[in-house]
Amino acid sequence: MVQAIAKELVLRKSEVDDVVETIYFGGGTPSVLSNEEIEFLIQTVYDHYKVMDRPEVTLEANPDDLSNHRIIQLSNSPINRLSIGIQSFFDEDLKLMNRAHNASEAEKCIQEATEYFDNITIDLIYGIPGMDNKRWKANIQKALDFGLPHISSYALTVEPRTALQRFIEKGVVPNVDDEQAQEQFYMLVDMLEAQGFVNYEISNFGKPGFFSKNNTAYWLGKTYVGVGPSAHSFDGKNRSWNIRNNPTYIKKITEGILPMEIETLSQSDRYNEAVMTGLRTIWGVDLERVASDFGEKYVEYLVLQSQKYRDSGLLVESEGKLLATKKSKFLVDGIASDLFFVK
Q1: 101 and 64 in contact (C-beta within 8 Å)?
Q2: For a pLDDT cut of 90, what percent of the chain falls above it?
Q3: pTM of the predicted model, to two decimals?
Q4: How confident is the model at residue 25 (pLDDT cuts 50, 70, 90)?
């Protein structure tokens, strides 16, 4: 698999003219890679792409993957940022979400990681059935007590055909309460902003200087190349994704064939994505950029469609940018969809 990923990097080098700013090991369990394998893949990037000085190099891992020995190993690799899937610091929440780690492992992992890494982000989940506001506040406070510079937080979604979905259907656990999830989201915003975090994207909170370059690239519509099974890519006009099957992926790459599907986005598709991603960030939707990228009719449409939200204080226009206000943050995806251009 590692050799195939390296070969895909070589096969796709012509797709990237820009300087590489971020390298991200995510999806699946990239923490199973040895330092030698990590260094081999990163060196492949350096050999075939233009890379900025000191790029952000992130590795995703779960607490049960990160023993003290492994953390020390990673600190001696090119990895300079850890993304740790904590989800919650309470066992009852972790059991409900069927996580492999427990609360004590979560705390021990972060405690040890902060001794070797300055740039760490964790994931926290709100809106978990049975998690009251007191426990959610304690979750946030535990994260703050570790002095972390970045936190990503998401509302719990119940995926189909999962144990959680079956428990909810059988009445074993209550369903997700959207009102409580919204309340917990605003608790999160207030507590983190009070400690100097910037909510630079709806689900992402960073101290100044610690915004994720990888996350920011997605939300600003920058191009990216994803390698490996199931990886997604975006070149500004087309989206592509690799097949999921590992043996087939390796076989095709070995034969010099890129096993991917490609979707060409229409002008309206690209406008809709720009609106959706822009409204989720502190940078908003730049009306001048909409005009240059898509034409004046799209600006006129956006201004007209957004009028009711500006009148109600859910959106605001400032310095040529359309921005979500604090009270609309939890609702912003629904608002954005109402601004989509539909033929």
Answers
A1: yes
A2: 87
A3: 0.92
A4: very high
Could you tell me the end-to-end alpha-carbon distance of the chain, in angstroms, rounded to an integer?
43
pLDDT tens, position by position, 161-209:
666 667 666 766 666 678 899 999 999 999 999 999 999 999 999 999 9
Tokens of 113: 């990681």
Rounded Cα distance between 284 and 39, Å, is: 37
> Sign of the C-alpha dihedral, residues 84, 223, 238, 202?
positive
pLDDT of residue 315: 97
- Residues 47-93 pLDDT 10s: 999 999 999 999 999 999 999 999 999 999 999 999 999 999 999 99
DSSP code for 326: G
How many Å separate Cα 199 from the centre of its chain? 13
Angle, alpha carbons 213-55-117 (nearest 5°): 85
Q: What angle do CA 135, 140, 142 make, to 5 degrees?
A: 90
Cβ atoms 267, 297 nearer than 8 A = no
Q: Which two tokens stand for residue 180?
A: 């409580």
Query: Measured at the alpha carbon of residue 144, what is the angle toward residues 140 and 150, in degrees to the nearest 5?
Result: 95
For residue 210, give the nearest of 66, 325, 58 by alpha carbon.
58
Query: What mean pLDDT do residues 6-16 have?
Result: 96
- Euclidean distance between CA atoms 147 and 115, whole angstroms: 11
Question: Measuring CA to CA, how many Å separate 311 from each of 303, 305, 315, 325?
Answer: 12, 11, 8, 12
Q: Which two tokens stand for residue 20?
A: 């590489």
Residue 230 CA to residue 241 CA, distance in Å, equals 6
